[in-house]
C-alpha cells in the first residue's frame, strides 16, 4: 500500500470507527447537527491542478474554489467552469470551500438541518417538506425527497462531461455521483473519499455562460441556476451542453434542451423553444410552481449571454 492509500484508508477507518463524517473546508459539515469530524488527509494527492499530456486536467478534491479560479490556464480552458465557480457563495466561503465539499455538500432542507425531524434523508420514512415548508424545493419531483441539490459546481462538471475519482471505485460520471436513489444526496458512503475530478481536453472557441435566479443578491444559494456550453458555426449551433440546478434532487444535465438547440439557429425563438423542453419535465409542488417560468427565463438568459459577443 502506498503512503497515499494508507492516509486515505486511515481517514476512512476513523470515520467508520467513530460514526463520523469527513471534513474538507468544513463550511457545510460544521453547520449541521454534529457528528465526530475526521479531517481529510492533507498531502494525500487531494490538492492541486495537474495537466495531462493529452490536454485533460485533474483537479484534486481539496482544491479550494479560490485556487481553482486563480489558475489562469484552467479558467481560460474551461470558461463555463470559471463562470460557474465564480458565482458560488462569497469570497470568504470560496477561500475555504473545496471542490469535493461543494460536490458532496448536503442539501439545504430546513427539516434535514433541524434536529428532531426524521425524514428519508436521515433514516426516517417520510418527507415533512412535501406537506410543509417547501418554497425552495424541487420543481422536477424525483420523489420521495424533494430537496434540490445545492452544488453549483456540479453543473459545470456535468456540462464538461467530467468524471469523479473516488478511492476504491472505478471512475464515475458526475451524474452517477448523484445516482438514482431518491433518498440520498449522493451515492458515496460516509467513509468513501473523492480524490479528484477529471475534465476532458478543452474545446477551443466554445461559447459559455452561467446564470442564476436568487431571492437575495449575495451570499445565497440560487432558486434556479443554469450553465451552458455552445459551439457555433456562424449563427448555427453545432454543439450544446446545458445543465440546471435548484430544480431537482440532483444537478441535472438537460439533453432535451441540447438536442433542441443542436443544428439550429442561435436566435431568441430557438432559445425559448429549447427552454420549453426543460419546463416540460417540471412537476411542481404546490409552492414551487414559480420555478417553472424562472427556469425558462434563466435558460433563455444563459443561452442569450453565451451567444452575445
Ligand atoms: C452564504 C453561503 C452561500 C452559498 N452559496 C452557494 C452556492 O451558490 N452554490 C454552491 O454550490 N454552494 C454554496 N454554498 C455552499 C458552499 O459552497 C459549500 O458549503 C462548500 O462548497 C462545501 O465545501 P467544504 O470544503 O467546506 O465542504 P465540507 O463542509 O468540509 O464537506 C461537505 C460534505 O462533503 C463531504 N466531503 C467533502 N470533501 C470530501 C471528499 N473529498 N470525499 C468525500 N467526502 C467529502 C463531507 O463529508 C461533507 O459531508 C454557500 C454557502 C454559504 C455559507
Ligand atoms: S425534502 Fe428531503 S431532506 Fe427535506 S424533509 Fe423531505 S426527505 Fe428530508
Characterise the protein shown here.
- This protein has 309 residues and is of the alpha+beta class.
- The chain folds into 2 domains: 3-199, Uridine Diphospho-n-acetylenolpyruvylglucosamine Reductase, domain 3, CATH 3.30.465; 207-307, CO dehydrogenase flavoprotein, C-terminal domain (Enolase-like, domain 1, 2-Layer Sandwich), CATH 3.30.390.50.
- The chain has 13 helices and 11 strands.
- The strands form 3 sheets. Strands 3-4-7-5-6 form a 5-stranded antiparallel β-sheet.
- A hairpin with a 5-residue loop joins strand 5 (163-166) and strand 6 (172-173).
- Helix 4 runs antiparallel to helix 9.
- The longest helix has 17 residues, at 291-307.
- The mean pLDDT is 96.
- Residues 21-29, 40, 61, 88-90, 93, 96-98, 100-102, 104-106, 150-153, 188, 193-194, 219-222 line the site of flavin-adenine dinucleotide.
Amino acid at each position: 500500500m502506498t503512503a497515499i492509500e494508507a492516509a486515505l484508508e486511515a481517514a476512512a477507518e476513523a470515520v467508520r470507527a467513530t460514526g463520523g463524517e469527513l471534513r474538507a473546508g468544513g463550511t457545510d459539515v460544521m453547520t449541521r447537527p454534529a457528528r465526530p469530524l475526521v479531517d481529510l488527509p492533507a498531502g494525500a494527492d487531494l490538492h492541486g491542478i495537474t495537466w495531462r499530456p493529452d490536454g485533460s486536467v485533474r483537479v484534486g478534491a481539496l482544491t479550494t474554489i479560490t485556487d481553482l479560479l486563480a489558475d489562469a490556464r484552467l479558467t481560460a480552458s474551461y470558461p463555463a467552469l470559471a463562470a460557474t465557480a465564480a458565482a458560488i457563495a462569497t469570497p470568504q466561503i470560496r477561500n475555504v470551500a473545496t471542490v469535493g465539499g461543494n460536490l458532496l455538500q448536503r442539501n439545504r432542507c430546513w427539516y434535514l438541518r433541524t434536529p428532531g425531524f426524521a425524514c428519508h434523508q436521515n433514516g426516517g420514512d417520510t418527507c415533512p417538506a412535501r406537506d410543509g415548508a417547501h418554497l425552495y424545493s424541487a420543481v422536477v419531483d424525483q420523489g420521495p425527497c424533494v430537496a434540490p441539490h445545492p452544488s453549483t459546481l456540479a453543473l459545470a462538471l456535468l456540462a464538461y462531461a467530467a468524471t469523479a475519482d473516488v478511492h476504491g471505485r472505478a471512475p464515475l460520471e458526475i451524474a452517477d455521483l448523484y445516482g438514482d436513489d431518491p433518498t440520498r444526496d449522493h451515492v458515496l458512503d460516509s467513509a468513501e473519499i473523492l480524490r479528484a475530478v477529471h475534465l476532458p481536453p478543452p474545446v477551443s472557441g466554445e461559447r459559455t455562460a452561467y446564470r442564476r435566479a436568487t431571492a437575495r443578491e449575495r451570499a445565497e444559494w440560487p432558486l434556479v441556476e443554469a450553465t451552458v456550453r455552445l459551439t457555433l458555426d456562424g449563427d448555427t449551433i453545432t454543439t450544446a451542453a446545458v445543465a440546471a440546478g435548484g430544480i431537482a434532487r440532483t444537478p441535472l444535465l438537460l439533453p432535451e434542451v441540447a438536442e433542441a438547440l443542436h443544428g439550429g439557429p442561435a436566435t431568441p425563438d430557438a432559445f425559448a423553444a429549447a427552454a420549453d423542453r426543460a419546463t416540460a419535465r417540471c412537476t411542481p409542488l404546490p409552492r414551487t410552481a414559480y420555478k417553472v417560468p424562472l427556469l425558462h427565463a434563466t435558460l433563455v438568459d444563459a443561452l442569450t449571454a453565451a451567444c452575445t459577443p
